[in-house]
Design goal:
There is one protein chain. The protein has 15 helices and 23 strands. The chain has 470 residues and is of the alpha/beta class. Strand 4, helix 4 and strand 5 form a beta-alpha-beta unit. It is globular, with a radius of gyration of 23 Å. 42% of the residues are buried.
């Protein structure tokens, strides 16, 4: 690698080995830093298999003699990266936690001071935390040499007496969301950092999820691991799905304007034939506006190769008319639309209620039927199945699985041939982040039943029966 004589910063993110997808949040942050500060900034993807000693050497070689700054974003609850950040901080490197849940992970779990078994937060692992829009880092980097950094919007830091200061974040400014550099991302090679060629990018159209804008009172059942508590529930006021910590973090900001979205698409790398690389459209309800987006990029001479959609089952069914129109446009443009993930999560109504999905099994099955029908009408323009590269959401196991639920679910799988094209190769176990709605659920169960569930960093281990306390 060859570097210019600039101040340097790196952003570390969790990654899966062998993948080549982009990281929109970290890469957009790196772009903001490079465009608006004296710092050169790269993104380093780190898998669980990567040697941390080799990673540290690569960081030191890259950062050089200037004040070393390493950001961390999208860590997926990985305790190995939390520990790595602590190691760097102890050696004098300024470590910055950013991205989703940066504030609550820095602060720690609710009332952890009175409950020692709870997640104590990451204020000892990171020098600062930055919650909210990436452009807030501009003020921080411009004021590190004095005390002005203390006024950085969205900043969290720990005073000498242990008190955590939390500044109010600024609102989103779309001018910072229009440009993304896709050539700033690296991975670990045998001897250090090597460029990572991105094959799938992302384009931001919605910030947050519309489902997270709806507040509802929900009754969530006790876990079956607590013997003798069958039928008992916990009442919670929730926004969005009960397991979704992003719903708590972002809520629903709304849609970005068309110019911002088209500008992001324009930034995407191109394939050998001049078409843009496949990209995921980050919008939980994209179908109503998808025909207009296709018309806009066609009118500007942008040629998409593939657009990946992630949708709820109910919004997919409701958007059928718009999707058929979009598929007709895709046919004329030589583009492909992949329904890369539908958040089915379960095919049992009780579990869907506990997850606060806001829909039922019948809606999920209606979505399956429509997905298959569209393949008949648009065989070259439409993909939805596992064979097409889709990975649909199926959460299992959960705290509410019983033999009856499992038997009924298997019957549904067989009756609708779901293993053939819908179900992923492997289900995803329910993960309870401490700041999600289910975090409040399990803390209330602990209070009522005088039990303690084990914490694994920022994750609560629901899968083991709570340890009784006196």
């Amino acid at each position: 690698m060859k570097y210019t004589l600039k101040k340097r910063m790196a952003i570390i993110s969790s990654y899966f080995e062998g993948e080549t997808y982009g990281l929109l949040g970290p890469q957009m942050a790196a772009t903001v830093i490079q465009e608006n500060t004296p710092y050169e900034c790269i993104v380093i993807t780190v898998t669980r298999a990567d040697d941390k000693k080799l990673l540290k050497k690569a960081l030191i070689d890259y950062l050089g003699v200037e004040r070393p700054i390493v950001g961390f974003s999208a860590l997926s609850g990985r305790e190995d990266l939390f520990s790595f950040a602590r190691e760097l901080r102890d050696e004098g490197i300024l470590t910055l936690l950013a991205g989703p849940q940066a504030d609550v992970d820095y602060l720690g779990e609710k009332d952890w001071q009175e409950h020692p078994h709870r997640f104590k937060g990451l204020s000892k692992n990171f020098t600062f935390s930055l919650h909210g829009p990436a452009e807030q880092v501009i003020y921080l980097l411009q004021n590190l040499d004095g005390n002005g950094w203390q006024d950085t919007p969205g900043l969290l830091y720990c005073k000498q007496d242990g008190e955590i200061v939390q500044n109010i974040p600024k609102t989103w400014e779309e001018k910072f969301l229009r440009k993304v550099r896709w050539d700033t991302i690296y991975t670990m090679g045998k001897e250090g950092l090597i460029p990572l060629k991105i094959s799938t990018g992302q384009v931001l159209q919605h910030i947050g999820c519309p489902h997270a804008a709806r507040e509802s009172m929900v009754e969530i059942g006790y876990p079956v691991s607590l013997v003798g508590k069958n039928g008992q529930t916990v009442k919670l006021t929730l926004k969005g799905c009960s397991f979704c910590d992003v719903a708590v973090d972002k809520g629903f900001y709304g849609a970005l304007d068309m110019e911002t979205v088209v500008s992001q698409i324009h930034c995407l790398p191109e394939l050998a034939d001049g078409r843009k690389i496949p990209f995921e459209l980050i919008n939980e309800n994209p179908l109503p506006g998808l025909p207009r987006l296709l018309n806009e990029i066609k009118g500007r001479g942008i040629r998409p190769s593939q657009i990946n959609l992630i949708l709820r089952a109910d919004w997919f069914v409701m958007g059928e008319k718009h999707l058929r129109q979009a598929l007709g446009l895709a046919r004329n443009m030589g583009a492909y639309i992949l329904l890369s993930s539908v958040g089915f999560e379960s095919f049992d109504d009780e579990i869907l209620r506990n997850l606060n999905k806001g829909l039922n099994v019948d809606t999920n099955l209606s979505a399956v039927r429509l997905m298959r029908q569209l393949k008949e009408g648009f065989p070259k323009e439409w993909g939805y199945s596992r064979a097409d590269g889709a990975i649909h959401g199926y959460i299992h196991p959960t705290p509410w699985d019983t033999q009856v639920i499992s038997a009924n679910t298997q019957k549904t799988f067989g009756a609708y041939a779901l293993p053939a094209d819908i179900l992923p190769a492997h289900s995803t176990p329910l993960i309870i982040h401490h700041a999600s709605g289910l975090g409040d659920w399990i803390r209330e169960i602990e209070r009522r039943e005088r039990v303690q569930f084990k914490r694994y960093g920022s994750v609560i281990g629901w899968w083991r029966p709570g340890k009784k306390i006196s």
